[in-house]
Amino acid sequence: MGHSHSHNHSHHHDLNGRNLFISILLNIIITAAQVIGGLVSGSLALLSDALHNFSDVMSLIISLVANKLVKQKASLKRTFGYKRAEILAAFINAASLILVAIFLVFEAIERFQNPQEIESNLVIWLSVIAILGNGFSVLLLRGNADDNMNMKSAYLHLLTDMMASVAVLIGGLLMKFYQIWWIDSVLTFAIAVYLIVMGWNLLKDSFKVLMLFTPESTSVNAIVGDIQSIEIVKNVHHVHIWQLNEDEIHLEAHIDFNKDISLSEFDLVLNAIEELVYHKYDINHINIQPEFGKCDAKDVIVQD
Fold first, then answer.
1. Does 8 have pLDDT greater than 60?
2. What was the pLDDT predicted at 43?
3. Model pTM greater than 0.85?
4. Is residue 5's pLDDT more than 70?
5. What is the average per-residue pLDDT within 8-30?
6. What is the 3-class SS of 166-235, one letter each residue?
7. What's the CA gap between 183 and 29, in Å, rounded?
8. Is 168 within 8 Å of 49 (Cβ atoms)?
9. Which residue has the higher pLDDT, 8 or 173?
């Protein structure tokens, strides 16, 4: 149970890997064009967008490596394989997203205080190219952003970069036609704030998984109550529930029985518990330690 979708998952990982690779190539081209354009036009906005794009390239490479690692088989040295690689990648990318955003906030404030006249035509054309390139990448990654933290982190990097390029374009047009030099820094500041909010949520979610916290939607008390309602079960204690990755939630518990049952009877109870927690709580891996008359702590949560 819980492994019935493995073929489906590997297909998704292959598709994600291909889409990430295309996005990396596009972003390398955009970054190079923006660096050259920023130096030629004297646009700090383009250079900051190039920096943001470069951070995208790095985050996409991290996501791609994690995507490849996840597919590696478990071994004696790595009994879980690299199943957490994508969660780790999401955490690293979310942290880098926030750092880039904080840098953009300071840069926007500094630029607002010292607006500079720049070559707006080059800025406009290069921002259009960046919007198209990042827009295509965003569409590629959008499909799996909701159910995969790693893909969401890559998607957020690209989405915010596309928005930054839109801000650069608007700034370029306003500078070209109205000589409003400060608009660029205001738009950059707004995007940076949005970036921090989105990055923080992803950082929080991936941190909870890495720290083995109980998933938000899972109630330990409800699960314990349901298992204890089985007639032969006396007590459920020493419970641990954690999320290994996006596909797997694990439950570990000690169960006291009312009488000294046989192994075959325990198997029947175990099957009942597996069915219950899988269908009601989406928990697909369980490890139960059966006990009868054992003297140990009977609290639901036991600090080892």
1. no
2. 73
3. no
4. no
5. 81
6. HHHHHHHHHHHHHCCCCHHHHHHHHHHHHHHHHHHHHHHHHHHHHCCCCCCCCCHHHHHHHHHCCCCEEE
7. 27
8. yes
9. 173
pLDDT at 298 over 90: no
> What mean pLDDT comes out for the span 281-298?
92
Task: Name the pLDDT band for 121 (thresholds 50, 70, 90).
Answer: confident
Q: Give a three-class secondary structure readout of the chain.
A: CCCCCHHHHHHHHHHHHHHHHHHHHHHHHHHHHHHHHHHHHCCHHHHHHHHHHHHHHHHHHHHHHHHHHHCCCCCCCCCCCCCCHHHHHHHHHHHHHHHHHHHHHHHHHHHHHCCCCCCHHHHHHHHHHHHHHHHHHHHHHHHHHCCCHHHHHHHHHHHHHHHHHHHHHHHHHHHHHHCCCCHHHHHHHHHHHHHHHHHHHHHHHHHHHHCCCCCCCCCHHHHHHHHHCCCCEEEEEEEEEEECCCCCEEEEEEEEECCCCCHHHHHHHHHHHHHHHHHHHCCCEEEEEEECCCCCCCCCCCCC
Q: What gap in Å lies between CA 200 and CA 89, rounded to an integer? A: 15
